[in-house]
Specification:
Blueprint: H1 3-12, H2 27-38, H3 40-52, H4 60-74, E1 80-85, E2 93-99, E3 108-113, E4 128-130, E5 133-135, H5 139-159, E6 167-172, H6 182-185, H7 187-195, E7 198-201, E8 206-208, E9 211-214, E10 220-230, H8 246-261, E11 268-277, E12 280-282, E13 289-291, E14 301-310, H9 313-327, E15 334-344, H10 351-367, E16 373-374, E17 393-395, E18 402-403, E19 411-413, H11 416-432
Parallel strand pairs: 3-6, 3-7, 7-17, 9-16
Antiparallel strand pairs: 1-2, 2-6, 4-5, 5-19, 8-9, 10-14, 10-15, 11-14, 12-13, 18-19
Length: 436
């Protein structure tokens, strides 16, 4: 099978994860494999350094320091590395690294993030290795993914395949807790998506039942806050014409109607916090609340906060419309308002995204690696790749395999790093030589 045939197979099988017949890896691709294997001590040492530097989203100095570590890896490979200061949004900043090739092949955007959920006051702070497994804060989400990006690009540089490639790496510094306003916090990533032809995202690899899975779709997240009001007074008048039902009954009516009427495939609706009484308030930031009341007082005010997750923009718009209609059907003597706060847009499954998975599975077949399935988007969280999905084809979940993300004991299977780096290096090489 010729190289042209190999490239064509991956593109033609746009709607199938099945590869064409396997071809023998080229001499260059074999050199990529050898380079990645030889470079593993460097990759693991880099992972340890990144993990041991705390970079909780709110730790501006720590996130900046991790960015400088990655800069030191990419600049020697010929990347122009820029630090985008984002302190105006309350966060450290983003690393944007650009490699300029010949402009003939696909322009590639590689996405990851520098921050973690573990702030400096966490007791979980250090990299610990036990054979082929290692634990540490953010080791899989997303410092393992960052190391895979670096490892793949170092191998391409060593074999000469990076020279002609047009690549932009965007590593955000606030993926786990985005700065505000969100439009400003994601402006550089959105611009990179408009520049690119293909985006590859390096959040954690899903492994289930011994099989690797890639991600062609992610649900978006929209936060919401609902406030209900009622007439307060002695509880003996509840349900009556004078005082009505009170704020708490109105809140419960709305939430229970959401529960009964909103569900459809790939839609979830969560209530994360609710308070009600006379009075009831939320603290700044909306993560804590307080309420007062007595059993014989009708509640004057209630507040609830949660999120809505959907797979497509159309599904989100439909859910929002239905939610507002439900809110508007007030119980007697009550009122209610519902406010949405945009967060992560949906990354819908598209033919283009599935074509990338087909091309990756052709790489897997040619390299003798297992084929990768398509992971259920209802089982994944949101990620930065969603911000570019409206403009570019995306393949996600190309990072390291592990477990326990966002919890103490978070771990990574170190053997997944060379496997993922090899898949990426060959896929990037082939895409960079595919005409735009």
């Amino acid at each position: 099978m010729t190289r042209f045939h190999t490239l064509a197979c991956g593109l033609l099988l746009a709607l199938s994860a099945a590869p064409c017949l396997a071809a023998t890896p080229s001499a260059t691709e074999q050199r990529l494999r050898d380079s990645i294997q030889a470079d593993q001590p460097h990759a693991i040492a880099l992972l340890e350094r990144l993990v041991n530097q705390n970079s909780g989203s709110l730790n501006i100095a720590g996130v900046t320091a991790v960015g400088e570590m990655v800069r030191a890896e990419l600049e020697p490979l010929g990347f122009d590395v820029q630090w985008i200061d984002m302190r105006a949004t309350g966060r450290a900043g983003h690393l944007v690294a650009t490699h300029t090739g010949k402009g003939r092949g696909k322009r590639l955007l590689l996405i990851g993030h520098l921050d973690t959920v573990f702030e400096p006051d966490s007791t979980f702070q250090r990299f610990v290795r036990n054979g082929d497994n290692a634990t540490g804060p953010g080791i899989g989400d997303d410092k393992g993914g960052v190391v895979i990006i670096v490892s793949a690009l170092r191998a391409m540089h060593a074999t000469g395949t990076l020279r002609d490639a047009d690549i932009k790496v965007v590593l955000t510094g606030d993926e786990e807790s985005a700065g505000t306003p969100l439009d400003a916090a994601r402006a550089n990533l959105v611009a990179a998506g408009k520049w690119a032809d293909v985006a590859l995202e390096y959040e954690g690899l899903i492994v289930d039942g011994g099989q690797d899975f890639a991600t062609v779709a992610r649900r978006g997240v929209t936060d919401w806050e609902m406030t209900t009001t009622g007439m307060t007074g002695h509880s003996s008048g509840v349900f009556g014409d004078g005082l009505g039902y009170g704020a708490n009954y109105e809140l419960v009516r709305i939430l229970d109607t959401f529960r009964r009427e909103l569900p459809e495939p790939n839609v979830t609706f969560n209530v994360g916090l609710m308070v009600g009484g006379t009075p009831a308030t939320l603290d700044a930031g909306g993560a804590r609340g307080s309420a007062s009341g007595k059993t014989n007082i009708i509640a004057e005010r209630a507040v609830a906060r949660g999120d809505l997750r959907t797979l497509t923009p159309e599904q989100e718009a439909r859910a929002r419309t239905r939610m507002q209609a439900i809110v508007a059907q007030h119980l007697p003597k009550t009122g209610a308002s519902l406010v949405f706060e945009d967060s992560y847009p949906p990354m819908a499954p598209t033919d283009g995204n599935r074509a990338l998975l087909a091309m990756l599975n052709q790489v897997n077949a040619d390299l003798g690696l297992p084929a990768m399935g398509e992971w259920d988007p209802a089982k994944r969280g949101a990620a930065d790749s969603s911000f570019v999905a409206a403009d570019v084809d995306v393949l996600a979940g190309l990072g390291a395999a592990g477990s326990g993300s966002h919890a103490e004991g978070e771990s990574v299977d170190l053997t997944s790093i060379p496997r993922q780096a090899l898949r990426s290096a060959v896929l990037i090489d082939r895409l960079s030589r595919t005409p735009r």
